[in-house]
Design brief:
By secondary structure, the protein is mainly beta. The chain has 2 domains: 140 residues, Leucine-rich repeat, LRR (right-handed beta-alpha superhelix); 144 residues, Leucine-rich repeat, LRR (right-handed beta-alpha superhelix). It is 8% helix and 31% strand. It contains 2 helices and 26 strands. The protein has an 8-stranded mixed beta sheet with strand order 12-13-14-16-18-20-22-24, covered by helices on one side. Strands 1, 2, 3, 5, 6, 8 and 10 form a 7-stranded mixed beta sheet that branches. A hairpin with a 4-residue loop joins strand 13 and strand 14. The protein is elongated, with a radius of gyration of 20 Å.
């Protein structure tokens, strides 16, 4: 409960940010003849943008609205539908917007249809999914052990929020997507392979079960709010190739006592290590990390040779 206010405020900001930059464009909204579905016409297809009566139980999304094939599920269209226990997405759908099912905590599993070619920033943030399935003939996305990736196996899109224990991200993954692990409270450890070059915005936000993390040498950028609110983190090691850390990347990681930042580091964003009670930074002399520690009155030590 101690980080509930953090998650609420940050999730709201994250939704605004994602809506501004990602997902399906918004056109003029209408309500279908049944009086239940709100939608917008885009390129001749209907994109579901919301509903009139909040859906519950097992939802079958219609394949047509007012004679128009349903081709998309819009940004945050079903956000916060806590009574949903299942969802069937029609094969006509090609696009699923950012956060489309965010906070649908009753969902335990979901299947991505064969024709989906675009998925925005993790549509399943803060869901309690046990698995994510993908139609075997989908040419753009796939699942590996219930985790959603692109078919080229370079982009980790969404990790099921109900999973517990440690997870090793497969070698070859380049980008950990925005919000990919957001709210995965049962995640106790994560192994990030050397192939990863970027950790996305809010990627591990609210993963309160994480106790330690090492950012490997292949990573160049840690996105804003990437580990915000990870109360269980006690130590972080950031290897030398990381050139930038985004705003609030480790904000309110209240258990964090030690963060080692190797290399010179080009920039550290606003509030990257704020509200981390008892934190000491281990930094290279003359680095941006040292300057950050001085400016924000964070205790620091110089990294010993041979660290």
């Amino acid at each position: 409960m101690k980080s509930k206010w953090v998650m609420g405020a940050v999730c709201a900001c994250l939704a605004i940010a994602l809506t501004a930059v990602c997902g399906l464009a918004s056109a003029e909204e209408a309500t279908d003849a049944s009086g239940q579905w709100k939608y917008a016409l885009e390129d001749g297809g209907a994109v579901i943008t919301g509903y009139v009566v909040e859906p519950t139980d097992d939802l079958v999304i219609p394949g047509k609205l007012d004679g128009h094939a349903v081709t998309g599920i819009g940004i945050s269209a079903f956000e916060g539908c806590v009574g949903l226990t299942g969802v069937t997405i029609p094969n006509s759908v090609t696009d699923i917007g950012s956060g489309a099912f965010k906070g649908c905590i009753g969902l335990t599993g979901v299947a991505i249809p064969v024709n989906v070619t675009y998925i925005g920033q993790n549509p399943f943030m803060n869901c309690r999914l046990a698995y994510i399935d993908v139609a075997p003939n989908n040419s753009v996305y796939e699942q590996r052990d219930g985790v959603l990736f692109d078919a080229q196996r370079a982009f980790l899109v969404s990790y099921p929020g109900a999973r517990e224990g440690a997870y090793a991200i497969p070698e070859g993954i380049v980008f950990i997507g925005d919000g990919a692990f957001m709210g995965c409270a049962g995640l106790t450890g994560v192994t990030i392979p050397g192939s990863v070059t970027e950790i996305g915005f809010g990627a591990f936000l609210g993963c309160t079960g994480l106790t330690g993390v090492t950012i490997p040498s292949g990573v160049a950028h840690i996105g804003g709010w990437a580990f915000e609110g990870c109360d269980g983190l006690t130590s972080v090691t950031i290897l030398g190739s990381v050139t930038s850390i985004g705003d609030r990347a480790f904000w309110a990681c209240r258990g964090l006592t030690s963060a080692t930042i190797l290399g010179s580091m080009a920039s550290i964003g606003d509030g990257a290590f704020h509200a981390c009670d008892g934190l000491t930074l281990n930094v290279a002399k003359g680095s941006a990390a040292e300057q950050y520690a001085k400016e924000h009155h964070i205790p620091y030590n110089y990294i010993c040779r041979g660290f």
